[in-house]
Description:
This protein has 374 residues and is α/β, with parallel strands linked by helices. Helix content is 51%, strand content 10%. It has three domains: 13-86 and 130-210, P-loop containing nucleotide triphosphate hydrolases (Rossmann fold, 3-Layer(aba) Sandwich), CATH 3.40.50; 216-282; 292-368, Arc Repressor Mutant, subunit A, CATH 1.10.10. Helix 1 (13-24) packs across helix 2, helix 5 (121-141) packs parallel to helix 6 and helix 13 (294-304) packs across helix 15. The longest helix is centred in the middle third of the chain and has 21 residues, at 121-141. The protein is flat and about 60 Å long.
Amino acid sequence: MSEITDPWHFPRPDLAQACLQGFDLGLTSARGLFARRRMGKSEFLKHDLLPAAMRAGYLAAYTNLWDDTDHPGQALATAILLATQPKGLGKFWEDLNTPISRVKGSGKLALGIEGSLELDLAQKEKAAVPAIQAALRAADKARKRLLLVIDEAQVLAAPEHKAVAHSLRAGLDIRKPGIKVLFAGSSEAALREMFSRSAAPFYNWAPLEPFPLLGREFVDATVRQLASVARQPLSLEDALKAFAALKETPEFFRWYIERYLIYQQQGPEQALQYTLARVHDDTGYARTWKELSRPDRAVLLLAARGVQDLYGTQALRQLQELLESAEVTASAPRTSIRRLTGAKLQLMARIDHGAYRFEDPEFQTWVAARHTVD
């Protein structure tokens, strides 16, 4: 893994060292970090933590499970193999997937898995279980410790990935001295359920804490970098104003800096207005809304309007009004909440019994501006 060369990257070496310290001292073998999307978490993991781990003598494996939510097992096995046996990766998956979707009759898969019927996606994921086991055995042969970073780890909390999660947990349990794991994700609720629900494969397996967010130092460093390339430097005051207006979201702030740099003659206010419009237009809120059922939209609309007890009698009456049906029962919000907080959607997080918050504050603003569920 090459060192970061992006001049706009804000390095956080102290945070990287703090993450590694617990592992180095043997105090823990796993930890969890959460932050909503676009807050710089993945950039830190890839460009600060993993290089620091490699300099400290670790092998480093990274996977973002959002890249293929249907097959996290294969993503995990690939990441481990890339770190431990990169030259054997192609042959490994060629044997395993020959190709899986076409294996019929008495076709035999690698690692002793036999297919008697054409394998569907669920069976394909089962094939990843022995793949994970084989990848972990490959890590056993390495002479270095392995740091495994699982980004968007809450995907493993989905019921359809239970077998993969159990296999990974079992394999990691017996390898704590040699394999350290950092679980990171954008859904606090899903991660907490993953580590606190007694029936979950990773119950009580890692402490969970918030990812330290970027603030004034990040803005100041970006302004200094901008001054080295811009004809009209941006004032720190204007930059901090934009950062606040963009809900202190680093990725949105980068959009703002990019717009300002290209169109400096238009000034910082125009760059901010353009960026705010882009935030609302380009993040897929309309598409997300369209793909939801009407009951799910109604529950989101109530939450966006500040309704605290989504299971209460008053909320039920409002749902009936929004959906124009007196037949909506008390089970409706519970069913919708399960979907909205689930690993697939991750639109809301539980903060108390019947009380939920949006994972994305910008999406809440977008929903609150709507008048109907249609």
